[in-house]
Automatic annotation (TrEMBL):
The lineage of its organism: Bacteria, Pseudomonadati, Bacteroidota, Sphingobacteriia, Sphingobacteriales. Residues 328-541 form the Glycoamylase-like domain. Residues 59-139 form the SbsA Ig-like domain. It comes from Mucilaginibacter boryungensis. Gene3D superfamilies: 1.50.10.140, 2.60.40.1220. This is Ig-like domain-containing protein. It holds the Pfam family Big_5. Keywords: Signal.
């Protein structure tokens, strides 16, 4: 009996233990069966994963395939998967596959070429069981150049006219309403630019000659400009870099740059003298205009800017800081026109010795080295930014021009070819650089401004660089113009002609326009087509005499 009782007790406890074990396991496993399952993802772009979240050079219809570790809730896709361009949504087509574990994403319409988009897969995505996405991602998708034409093809002559006419709107339609002068840039409010206005005056003459506006309208704008300049701030006859277009008061370019700027003044005077040579009518309006221009030019105290009769001209003078900036104007750079007009002055001239010792540094501005297949007579290594060969030569005709230091036809062409061949060689392997996309000069860049050149190349092309070089390298310049307009014009072309700059490498496109970049486009195209501005400026008797005195020779003197 005792043994039997022990056996029964043992059996009872054994059964109870098994039941407890069974029920305990069942109770503990229930939550695992019902809890939400989280998911992670992986993805490919056009079937490839490059190890990053950045995909460049894509077509306009990319496919992103997202693979989840768990089936996802289809209802959460709309909120959880979005494509945007600069914050603006782009419609998507999505398709679930593989038991809702694979999501194929494509844009509903072709994307825009040369544009960056962001595909966000956020934690709004939920799994079918209500779990979360543990690794949301933001994938950058950048489209490549679409080689289709963005505008209908027209003849080369029609294209040149279109570019000149559209670009002229910057100076005419957007000229300051009070002064008529050029805004520094399209977002400058009342800030007008002295040098850029000189370029704009040359553009105005071009526009009248091409019947973009009437002669009467051109004269009226010139009269407004002259009336303003007669009362605007001047410092020993020189205007400041910037002025308030409503009042004529100086706007400091920097703290100590709040007085006369001789270089900017020379650009303005070159424009005014060009207008004087164009508006030659005997009527009272044009006669008065010419007399007023003579008065403004003759009032510039060029020789005073030698600073106590030194052998060089100085760039700035301030009524508050005097000569503190102390920037001598020495060559080779964009300032040849400053010395030419100083030498041409009949009221405050400088002697040839100042040109030789100050500007030419008695020959020290010579270069003579060869870069990218072109021998450069003057200037810095690799030529520097192209505006060095534009600003002075809007009026000064380099064709056949020479002095003791250089042949300027050779100089302008060599500098341009170095810039072109550098971009064609593309040593930094920037996207887009080549025979159709070239031109490094001072311009806006993403987040700032810089003077781009072969020795300071940040991947930014400025249309003004190549287009304004058309008189020097017409074939190469026309190739670039066609590329800028036909191939990427949907990004680079606006209400006032070409925007200031762009980078295919960074897929950055400026929305700005600057007077000092727009003006040379119009003027240099015209000099290429007809030599109009060259002929007018070089016809100035003062210019002829002054340049001859400095030792220049030219068929145009």
């Amino acid at each position: 009996m005792y043994i039997t009782s022990i056996k029964r007790s043992a059996f009872f406890y054994l059964v109870a233990f098994v039941l407890l074990l069974f029920t305990g396991c069942k109770k503990n496993s229930a939550p695992a069966d019902n809890s939400p399952l989280d998911a992670s993802l992986s993805f490919t772009v056009n079937g490839q994963y490059n190890g990053t979240f950045i995909y460049n050079g894509l077509g306009t219809n990319p496919t992103v395939t997202i693979t989840f570790s768990e089936a996802i809730d289809a209802a959460t896709i709309t909120a959880g998967v979005t494509l945007t361009n600069s914050g603006s949504p782009v419609a998507l087509t999505t398709q679930l596959q593989n038991g809702n574990k694979t999501l194929v994403v494509t844009p509903q319409q072709a994307l825009v070429s040369l544009t960056t988009y962001t595909l966000n897969v956020s934690n709004s995505i939920k799994t079918a069981s209500g779990g979360r996405l543990v690794n949301p991602v933001a994938i950058q998708l950048s489209t490549a150049l679409d080689d289709t034409d963005k505008f209908p093809r027209i003849t080369d002559e029609e294209l040149l006219t279109l570019v000149q006419k559209q670009t002229f709107k910057y100076f005419y339609d957007m000229g300051h309403p009070v002064s008529g002068l050029a805004l520094e840039r399209n977002t400058s409010g009342n800030t007008v630019t002295t040098g850029g206005s000189g370029f704009g005056i040359m553009a105005l003459v071009t526009a009248v000659n091409r019947n973009f506006i009437t002669r009467a309208d051109g004269l009226a704008r010139m009269q407004k400009i002259i009336a303003f300049l007669k009362t605007a701030d001047r410092f020993h006859g020189a205007y400041p870099h910037w002025m308030d277009g409503a009042t004529g008061k100086v706007i400091p370019f920097s703290t100590k740059d709040n007085g006369g700027d001789l270089v900017e003044t020379s650009y303005l005077m070159a424009g005014l003298l060009t207008a004087r040579q164009y508006f030659t009518g005997a009527d009272a309006g044009e006669t008065t205009l010419r007399n007023d221009i003579n008065t403004l030019y003759n009032a510039v105290e060029w020789s005073w800017y030698r600073k106590d009769n030194s052998d060089v001209l100085y760039w700035h003078w301030s009524p508050n800081y005097a000569w503190d900036m102390s920037v001598p104007i020495r060559g080779w750079n964009e300032c040849l026109i400053t010395y030419v007009l100083a030498g041409a002055s009949t009221t405050y001239p400088i002697p040839k010795s100042v040109y030789d010792a100050g500007w030419a540094q008695n020959g020290a501005m010579k270069n003579g080295n060869t870069y990218y297949g072109a021998q450069l007579p003057l200037g810095p290594a690799n030529g520097g930014p192209l505006f060095l060969e534009h600003y002075s030569f809007l009026g000064i005709n380099p064709k056949g021009l020479a002095d003791a230091y250089a042949n300027y036809e050779t100089q302008t062409k060599a500098h341009t070819l170095i810039n072109y061949n550098y971009c064609k060689a593309n040593p930094k392997a920037y996207m887009g650089y080549g025979e159709n996309c070239w031109g490094l000069t001072a311009s806006d860049i993403s987040g700032g401004y810089t003077a781009s050149s072969p020795t300071n190349d940040v991947g930014v092309i400025a249309p003004t660089a190549a287009i304004s070089s058309m008189p020097y390298t017409p074939t190469e310049a026309m190739q670039a113009l066609k590329f800028f307009y036909y191939k990427i014009g949907n990004k680079t072309w606006g209400a006032y002609g070409f925007y200031d700059a762009f980078s295919l490498q960074q897929q950055w496109f400026a929305t700005s326009t600057l007077a000092i970049d727009q003006g040379p486009i119009i003027v240099m195209i015209e000099n290429y087509r007809t030599s109009l501005i060259w002929n007018l400026f070089m016809s100035c008797p003062e210019v002829k005499a002054g340049m001859k005195n400095f030792g220049f020779t030219s068929p145009n003197l």
